[in-house]
C-alpha cells in the first residue's frame, strides 16, 4: 500500500483495534471475506474516498443485472418461460423481453 498519512499519522499503521464506529462495522463486514490486513486497507481506502460524503449504493440487483440477463439468455429455450420466471423472480413477459433482447 502506498504511504498514506493524515495529521502526522501514517494510515499504513492502522490496525483493526484502532477503528471505531462505522469504520469498525465496515471492517468487521469486510473481514468476513478478506484477510484482516486487506480488510483494514479496504476500510481505509473507502474512508478516504467517501469521507464526509453520503454515498448512495443502488440495490445489488442493479449491479449484477447484466450477469442475470446473460444467464437468462443462456438458459432460455422458448419453452421454459414459467420456470425461468420463477427462478429469477420475474414475470414471464419481462423474462421474454430479457431473453430476446440483444446483450449490451
**Helix coverage percent of residues?**
40-55%
Query: What's the structural domain tally?
Result: 2
Distance between the amino and carboxyl termini: 35 Å
Poorly predicted runs of 5 or more residues: none
Strand content: under 5%
Question: Which sheet architecture does the biggest sheet show?
Answer: 2 strands, antiparallel
SSE arrangement, N to C: EEHHHHHH
Radius of gyration: 21 Å
Taken from the alpha-carbon principal axes, the silhouette is elongated
> Total number of β-strand segments?
2
Overall residue-averaged pLDDT value: 89
Strand order of the largest sheet: 1-2
The secondary-structure class comes to: mainly alpha
Question: With helices defined by DSSP (H or I, 4 residues minimum), what is the helix count?
Answer: 6
Task: Tell me what the structure shows.
The protein is mainly alpha-helical and 104 residues long. 54% of the residues lie in helices and 4% in strands. It is elongated. It has 6 helices and 2 strands. The longest helix has 15 residues, at 36-50. The protein has 2 domains: 5-50, no CATH class; 60-100, no CATH class. Helix 1 (21-30) crosses helix 2.
Amino acid at each position: 500500500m502506498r504511504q498514506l498519512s493524515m495529521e502526522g499519522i501514517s494510515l499504513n499503521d492502522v490496525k483493526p483495534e484502532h477503528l471505531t464506529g462505522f469504520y469498525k462495522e465496515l471492517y468487521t463486514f469486510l473481514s468476513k471475506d478478506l484477510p484482516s490486513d486487506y480488510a483494514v486497507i479496504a476500510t481505509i481506502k473507502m474512508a478516504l474516498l467517501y469521507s464526509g460524503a453520503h454515498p448512495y449504493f443502488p440495490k445489488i440487483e442493479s449491479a449484477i443485472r447484466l450477469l442475470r440477463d446473460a444467464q437468462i439468455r443462456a438458459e432460455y429455450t422458448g419453452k421454459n418461460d414459467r420456470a425461468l420466471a420463477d427462478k429469477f423472480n420475474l414475470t414471464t413477459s419481462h423474462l421474454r423481453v430479457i431473453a430476446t433482447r440483444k446483450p449490451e
